[in-house]
Design goal:
single chain, globular, Leucine-rich repeat, LRR (right-handed beta-alpha superhelix), 11 strands, about 40% helix
């Protein structure tokens, strides 16, 4: 017997389907193209924007004229995460991401708790200006990711301003950040007592570096054991709620063993340390971490580099 359904796909509430389920999978360009189809499509598109919880401001993926940017500022009210890609987009954003625009975007989205910034290789005055505006306006978010590639601009100035306005971060990801100047990393972490997840950059203290290797994509890599040891010691003293730590280091030398031990002893909630894929660490330290029930990731050798 043939089954006849009383409803079909076309009986579904299209607006609810688009706004509540499909919008989060679309790029901004797709939503704005949809808005251009009809007056009804424009209303649905605005509703889709107003229901978004995550947005990526990136040229040329997002529309770049003044009208569409104004629509974003006015329509988005439920954002929880904002990604800003300044790579190859610094001129566009330097014009539109003014102090007033940033304040309006954040005021309209009071529940934003995560910011991700990618500066790529756009080391320019425009980039620095946008970073400064973001640092002074992002007061409530708890998760922060900073990306950039060598050689770009120092992250220090941004973090210094950021700390003045926000000292309650829970997560900070500096995996792809550029170099810290001497002492700036410690100063930043001294003011972030609530951090639970930390991903450190691959280089510290460029003025006291040790040349390690040359990578065909990222260029020369440098490291300063003293700078990293001081930073780890500061984290151990301040970040008592630390749960996850990522260290991108080519060789975990004896100088750093004491700092690692201090972190494990001072941070009882720590459960995972993720080393760089080509890190080396001694059997003694590895055994100690396992004894303390610390999950160790990323190690492919156990001999200490001397």
């Amino acid at each position: 017997e043939k089954i006849v359904f009383s409803t079909s796909l076309f009986d579904l509430p299209v607006e609810d389907l688009l706004v509540s389920h499909l919008a989060k999978y679309l790029k901004l360009r797709d939503i704005f193209n949809f808005r251009c189809c009809s007056r009804y499509s424009k209303d649905v598109g605005d509703a889709m924007l107003s229901d978004l919880q995550e947005i990526t401001l990136k040229y040329p993926i997002m529309p770049y004229n003044e009208i569409t940017f104004r629509v974003i500022l006015q329509a988005c009210h439920k954002l929880r995460k904002i990604c800003i890609d300044l790579n190859r987009s610094y001129y566009y954003f330097s014009v539109r991401l003014t102090d007033e625009a940033i304040k309006e975007l954040l005021d309209n989205n009071s529940h934003v708790d995560e910011i991700e910034i990618d500066i790529g290789n756009s080391a320019s005055d425009s980039t620095i200006n946008v970073l400064s505006l973001l640092a002074s306006n992002c007061k409530n978010f708890a998760k922060f990711t900073f990306r950039g590639y060598l050689p770009v601009l120092p992250v220090d100035g941004f973090l210094k301003v950021l700390t003045q306005h926000n000292n309650h971060l829970l997560e900070v990801n500096l995996t792809f950040a550029v170099d810290f100047c001497e002492g700036e990393a410690e100063e930043f972490f001294k003011n972030q007592h609530q951090l639970q997840r930390i991903c450190l950059p691959p280089i510290f203290g460029a003025e006291h570096f040790t040349y390690i290797q040359y990578h065909r994509f990222t260029g020369p890599a440098f490291q300063s054991d003293k700078a990293l040891a001081r930073t780890l010691s500061t984290i151990a003293d301040v970040c008592k709620d630390l749960r996850y730590l990522k260290i991108q280091w080519f060789g975990i030398k004896p100088m750093l063993h004491m700092a690692l031990t201090k972190i494990v002893e001072n941070c009882p909630k720590l459960h995972t340390i993720n080393f760089s894929f080509n890190s080396t660490i001694s059997d003694e330290v590895l055994s100690y971490l396992k004894l303390k029930n610390i999950q160790v990731k990323g190690i492919n050798a156990k001999d200490v580099q001397q």
